[in-house]
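Hi again,

Forgot to attach this to my earlier email, sorry! This is the prediction with iron/sulfur cluster bound. I've pasted everything inline since the attachment limit keeps bouncing my files.
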Amino acid sequence: MPIFNISNNIKEEFHYRYNIPYPIHIYRYAKTVNERRQLLDYMIKFNVLPSLDIIYIETINYCNLACSFCPVGEGQRINKATMSDELFDHILNLIGQITDKSKVTVCMNGHGEPLLDKDIFKRINKLKQFYPQFRTVLFTNTTLIQDRIDELVKSKLDYLMCDFYNEDDKTKCLELFNEYNIAYNKALDYWGNINNRLNVRYSEVYNTDKSFYNNRLGTVNVGPSDVVDEPCIFPFIQLPINVNGGIRYCCIDAMDKTVFDNVLNYNNILELWYSKLYNDIRCNLKDSKLKDTACRQCNNHDYLKFRLIYT
Ligand code: SF4
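Structure tokens for the complex follow:
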């Protein structure tokens, strides 16, 4: 294993699998491009990668806000859609074949506000009823939380991540949580230290350093001006499914610039995860994102800033 200079107190925060930290944990501490390439090569060689850590299920693809750094906001999504029950059931059937479900997080949103989906809690409950071992996560802008609070409290959701886009939303939402005796914490860098059933974390997006943003593959004008010649781990660890079943390379792609396949083409999760199409993409990205036409537009490169919901 390549030796990176990671301090012991950070190492203690890692969650381990097969006696090494989850791939994303160590990847984000490999600071140089060469270290990242070396690490990816190593993990591929020893079958640590590909490793399905997180599945995104986008049940609704539009939003009720219009943030300047996001290409999805109100009025910008042309083909607004909600996932059909048939497609959702097909996805459940596929991911139900995963053998070690306790190692996998299912994020119940993609690019859109999930509380706009009237069936979101019904879907979460169905998934957890069939497969309680998956860890479920939901990210929301909280603007609709007042309307859905009773469903939320009764739901089987494991983690709720509240992204506040202004101070007023934060005040209203935290007052509501106090009223319902729901504990919450400001988001840590990772999702350890479970302290209440709903595991509510929040972030103040309105206070976030602008350097956190990225250009969503060239669809918004934010983030660094340069695209770094570097590898990318995301297609090795993420399975992002859009509202129509399309498979994206990563969670960054809000506007489906990287959709390369569809879950409806598969009845077997292993055939999907190890498909030739998927592996060809990984083969390019293990060397450099400049090898891929879509990724060449992506200015995301600071993995240290990524919140870790993979733990
Ligand atoms: S290079 Fe960017 S667009 Fe391509 S897979 Fe990685 S994060 Fe996604």
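DSSP finds ten helices and eleven strands in the chain. The chain has a mean pLDDT of 87.

That should be everything now.

G.
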